[in-house]
Every structure is written in structure tokens, then in C-alpha cells.
Amino acid sequence: MTDSSAPIVVEQSFDVPKSTVWKAITEREQMVDWFFENIPEFRAEPGFETQFDIDSGRRVFRHLWKITEVIPGQLIVYDWRYEGLPGTGKVTFEIFEEGEGSRLRVTNEGIESFPNDMPEFTRESCEDGWTYLLQTSLKQYLDG
């Protein structure tokens, strides 16, 4: 595997049980508070699809998500695409017990399939985005 095709992996530990993390990553009412505020609907069911726009400051991206795998309380996998752009990513959320709390690992594969001339799709941009979402946004959300 080359460096550019290596998956991006970001992890964060939380002082809450796995079930609390699972709800935060799969219930729309919670996802809009830490992930993307304009997710119109979400169901943690294989085959479920949703789409919504995100303004990066440079352009608006229509996110196209399709859930491909779910193990309730443990794992959810998305196909992650953008309308009008080549490429398909795969994002896996995995939750593990860790002492009295839990740990969330997000693995983002396929970023090399997106246009390499767009700054939003650089490895650094994607790493920074996932790091912020897990280690700042979700952590603050779950810490209450």
C-alpha cells in the first residue's frame, strides 16, 4: 500500500459507555450537534442513503452517504461520495470498550480516488477534519 492510499485512522477515548458513543454517531438528533448540522435524516441500516450540502468556504459539496454495514453498538460503514465528482470513500466507525469508558476509531479509505487538485481532498485536510471531529467536536459533545 502506498502512502497516498494508506487509510486515515483517527481514534479518541471517551469516559462514557459504548452505548452512549453509538447513539452519538447513529442518531440524527445527536449527529447534528457535533458532526454535520444539516444532515436531513439518518438511520443506521444497511442500504440507507442520505445527502446534504456542506460549504467548505471555497465551494459547496453535496455529500452522498450510503450505509453498507452495521453491527449495532459496534460498527457502522459508509460509502462516502460527492455529487458531480469522481471517487468513492469508505468510512468505518468502530467502538471498543476501554476500561470504564470506550474508544472510537474512524478509518477513512479511498481519499486518493477523489480529485487530487482540490485542497479539500488532501491527506492533511482529511486528517485534520477527522481529528477535529473526533478529538474536539465529539469529545466536547460527549463530555457535556
From TrEMBL:
Any one Pfam family match given in the protein's UniProt record, by short name: AHSA1
UniProt-listed CDD domains: SRPBCC_CalC_Aha1-like (cd07814)
Activator of Hsp90 ATPase homologue 1/2-like C-terminal domain segment(s): 15-142
InterPro entries named in the record: ASHA1/2-like_C, START-like_dom_sf
Gene3D superfamilies, A to Z: 3.30.530.20
SUPFAM superfamilies membership: Bet v1-like
Family indicated by similarity: Belongs to the AHA1 family.
Protein's UniProt name: Activator of Hsp90 ATPase homologue 1/2-like C-terminal domain-containing protein
